[in-house]
């Protein structure tokens, strides 16, 4: 790369960083305007892990205090961390693509000199800061009620702070790629449902992966889902070795790269079709 | 904004926009109504090629404001989308400021803007000023230049009080003014405006028109404008390109359009005595109780008919006018023999 090209690339990245900062700030401003709605949404969302938690706590109690070695306190820790990871995992939904294309919003994005994925990544990343702020009291209440067992080292905390953003990136890429199927057909809700069902089972969202049967764990190992839920949760609430922590982060990086490649390829063909057909 | 006119590849004698034999063909699925046709379409889908744009050629010079006219479905928006890089042409050539729009290069996108009526780029929940800030980041406008452009646009559009309110609290007219400012913050050299005043009241329309004229004067930007409001076209454009069924019917001056395609003129005559039957002089378009009658007469005979009216009646006033531009456009569409007229 020549010096001029390097300087150009540096300018481009600086400009992009400025764009991310402005969009994230905008997202924070916007979401604070909807703080009540955000809170109600979060409270509603808590119902899902609380149900799982109550069920598994009951099973643990019935089995003499633990299920496959996981105690009620560890279940509580798992599902309380789950609530934060789930919030970090909220990204632009594939269902949003239909409106984006039909209403011509995508056209507005395409005449701007920034790839639309940067807007989504920046906007939802900004939203997370509001979410984390709103999550703290909810987590405090859940902790008081369910008494989680935590044993967190500084390294685990550090890895967790990286892993939740890794989870965010992987899920953003995968759902962006999935949503772009709308370029070809809008009748894709069955495909989305298939994705979300597979994710529910194989990610650690429904239950800790350690409780899956062997064959399901084997499948889970070859899919990206656990790096969007189970891995970041286990980092804080589980008992992963240092090696497992680094391997997990490495695999998050790999799945992020695969997701980015997938987005680039589908986007290239999708936008070619959009440019041929219009909206 | 400086009075620097167009610069870059679009200036220096080169047109800002150059379009040659532009075509866009869409392949659309079609089938008859009914269950049988529905089942048949499962096995074999019938398609038809539709030429939305069928060989359009024109140039727009740096600083020129051109009205792009046509009925719904004539191919105006499809052409604008190809010019702004949203659609790939099926064939033909386009150069906008020396760029090929379909490549959507960042440098090209930084130099144009596309404003489509009722489509917003402002964030709904925050004040327009914050959306302006986002555009500053999108277009990487240097801070000082951004402030200068923003303040000037805010002043020209008289939206100083509005830009601090959340966009959702603005009326349609107020929002369109703020949208227009947002679309021009990066001081584009080519503006594609698709129905920029649609849905606005007369006052807001006038404000936007006056602003666009002033923007064009100050920056020397080229503007290609579609509008169903002839007042927009008359106020802003010296030249119009009329298309129908994807082809150019007329490309030339607005005044020449009327001269060329209007075979009739309207004589409005006031008779103090009233009640006179004037049908012998021409086709009566309107007759009011106060004695005013509008007559449609062949343009070549308008002078003679006016003289006869003055000779035959006691006339309080008489005017001869060209028909409204809307009627002329209608006439152009009706006159398919005019295809290729330039």
Topology:
The complex is a heterodimer of chains A (279) and B (342).
Chain A: H1 3-33, H2 35-62, E1 66-67, E2 70-71, H3 72-88, H4 96-102, H5 105-110, H6 116-146, H7 154-179, H8 189-202, H9 214-221, H10 230-237, H11 242-277
Antiparallel strand pairs in A: 1-2
Chain B: E1 17-30, H1 35-43, E2 46-60, E3 65-69, H2 76-83, E4 91-96, H3 106-109, E5 112-116, H4 128-139, H5 143-156, H6 172-184, E6 190-194, H7 202-219, E7 222-226, H8 230-236, E8 239-244, E9 247-253, H9 254-261, E10 264-270, E11 283-287, E12 292-298, H10 302-312, E13 317-321, H11 325-334
Parallel strand pairs in B: 3-7, 3-8, 5-6, 6-7
Antiparallel strand pairs in B: 1-2, 1-4, 8-9, 10-12, 10-13, 11-12
Helix pairs in contact in B: 4-6, 5-6, 6-7
Quick summary:
By secondary structure, chain A is mainly alpha-helical. Chain A contains eleven helices and two strands. Chain A has helices at 3-33, 35-62, 72-88, 96-102, 105-110, 116-146, 154-179, 189-202, 214-221, 230-237, 242-277, and strands at 66-67, 70-71.
What does this structure look like?
Chain A is mainly alpha-helical and 279 residues long. Chain A has one domain (3-277). Chain A has 11 helices and 2 strands; from the N terminus they run ααββααααααααα. A two-stranded antiparallel sheet of chain A has the order 1-2. In chain A, a hairpin with a 2-residue loop joins strand 1 (66-67) and strand 2. In chain A, helix 3 crosses helix 10 (230-237). Chain A is globular, with a radius of gyration of 20 Å. Chain B has 342 residues and is an alpha/beta fold. Among the domains of chain B are: 8-111 and 188-257, P-loop containing nucleotide triphosphate hydrolases (Rossmann fold), CATH 3.40.50; 264-321, Alpha-Beta Plaits. Helices cover 33% and strands 27% of the residues of chain B. Chain B is built from 11 helices and 13 strands. Chain B has helices spanning 35-43, 76-83, 106-109, 128-139, 143-156, 172-184, 202-219, 230-236, 254-261, 302-312, 325-334, and strands at residues 17-30, 46-60, 65-69, 91-96, 112-116, 190-194, 222-226, 239-244, 247-253, 264-270, 283-287, 292-298, 317-321. In chain B, the strands form 3 sheets. In chain B, strands 5-6-7-3-8-9 form a 6-stranded mixed beta sheet, with helices on both faces. Chain B has a 4-stranded antiparallel beta sheet with strand order 11-12-10-13, with helices on one face. A 3-stranded antiparallel beta sheet of chain B has the order 2-1-4. In chain B, a hairpin with a 2-residue loop joins strand 8 and strand 9 (247-253). In chain B, helix 5 runs antiparallel to helix 6 (172-184) and helix 6 (172-184) packs parallel to helix 7 (202-219). Chain B is globular. Chain B starts with 16 loop residues before the first strand and ends in an 8-residue tail after the last helix. Mean pLDDT of chain B is 85; it is low at 1-11 and 337-342. The A-B interface holds A 15, 18-19, 21-23, 26, 29-30, 33-34, 104-105, 107-108, 110-114, 272, 275-278 and B 26, 78, 81, 84-88, 102, 104, 106-107, 109-110, 112-114, 116, 119-121, 123, 125-126, 130-131, 133-134, 136-140, 166.
């Amino acid at each position: 790369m020549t010096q001029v090209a390097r300087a150009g690339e540096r300018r481009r990245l600086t400009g992009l960083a400025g764009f991310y900062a402005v969009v994230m700030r905008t997202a924070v401003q916007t979401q604070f305007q909807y703080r009540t709605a955000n809170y109600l949404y979060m409270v509603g969302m808590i119902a899902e892990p609380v149900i799982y938690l109550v069920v598994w706590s009951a099973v643990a109690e019935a089995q003499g205090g633990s299920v496959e070695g996981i105690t009620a306190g560890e279940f509580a820790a798992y599902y309380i961390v789950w609530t934060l990871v789930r919030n970090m995992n909220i990204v632009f939904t594939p269902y949003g693509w239909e409106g984006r294309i039909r209403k011509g919003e995508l056209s507005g994005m395409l005449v701007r000199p920034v790839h639309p994925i940067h807007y989504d990544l920046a906007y939802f990343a900004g939203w997370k800061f509001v979410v984390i702020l709103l999550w703290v009291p909810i987590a405090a209440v859940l902790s008081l009620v369910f008494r989680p067992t935590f044993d967190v080292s500084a390294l685990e905390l550090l890895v967790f702070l990286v892993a939740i953003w890794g989870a965010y990136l992987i899920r953003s890429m995968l759902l962006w790629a999935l949503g772009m199927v709308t370029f070809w057909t809008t009748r894709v809700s069955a495909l989305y449902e298939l994705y979300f069902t597979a994710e529910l089972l194989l990610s650690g969202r429904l239950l800790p992966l350690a409780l899956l049967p062997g064959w399901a764990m084997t499948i889970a190992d070859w899919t990206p889902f656990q790096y969007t839920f189970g891995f970041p949760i286990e980092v804080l609430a589980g008992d992963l070795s240092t090696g497992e922590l680094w391997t997990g982060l490495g695999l998050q990086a790999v799945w992020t790269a695969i997701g980015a490649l997938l987005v680039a390829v589908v986007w290239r063909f999708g936008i070619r079709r959009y440019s041929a057909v219009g909206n | 904004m400086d009075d620097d006119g167009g610069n870059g590849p679009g200036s220096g004698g080169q047109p800002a926009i150059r379009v040659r034999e532009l075509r866009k063909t869409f392949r659309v699925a079609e089938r008859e109504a009914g269950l049988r046709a529905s089942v048949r379409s499962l096995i074999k889908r019938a398609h038809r090629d539709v030429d939305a744009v069928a060989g359009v050629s024109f140039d727009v010079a740096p600083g020129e404001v051109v009205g792009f006219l046509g009925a719904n479905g004539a191919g105006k928006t499809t052409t604008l989308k190809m010019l702004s890089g949203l659609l790939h042409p099926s064939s033909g050539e386009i150069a906008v400021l020396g760029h090929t729009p379909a490549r959507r290069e960042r440098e090209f996108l930084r130099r144009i803007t596309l404003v489509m009526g009722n489509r917003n780029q402002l964030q709904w929940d925050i004040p327009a000023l914050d959306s302006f800030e986002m555009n500053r980041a999108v277009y990487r406008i240097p801070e000082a230049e951004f402030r200068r452009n923003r303040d000037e646009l805010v002043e020209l559009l008289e939206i100083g009080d509005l830009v601090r309110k959340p966009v959702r609290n603005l009326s349609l007219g107020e929002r369109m003014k703020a949208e227009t400012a947002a679309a021009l913050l990066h001081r584009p050299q080519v503006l594609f405006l698709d129905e920029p005043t649609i849905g606005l009241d007369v006052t807001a329309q006038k404000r936007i028109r006056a602003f666009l004229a002033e923007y064009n004067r100050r920056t020397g930007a080229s503007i290609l404008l579609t509008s169903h409001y002839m007042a927009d076209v008359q106020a802003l454009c010296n030249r119009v390109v009329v298309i129908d069924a994807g082809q150019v019917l007329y490309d030339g001056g607005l005044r020449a359009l009327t001269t060329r395609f209007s075979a009739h003129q309207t004589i409005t005559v006031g008779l103090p005595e009233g009640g006179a039957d004037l049908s012998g002089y021409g086709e009566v378009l309107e007759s009011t109780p106060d004695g005013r009658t509008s007559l449609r007469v062949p343009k070549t005979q308008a002078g003679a008919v006016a003289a006869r009216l003055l000779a035959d009646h006691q006339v309080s006033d008489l005017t001869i006018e060209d028909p409204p531009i809307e009627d002329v456009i209608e006439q152009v569409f009706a006159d398919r023999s005019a295809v290729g007229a330039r």
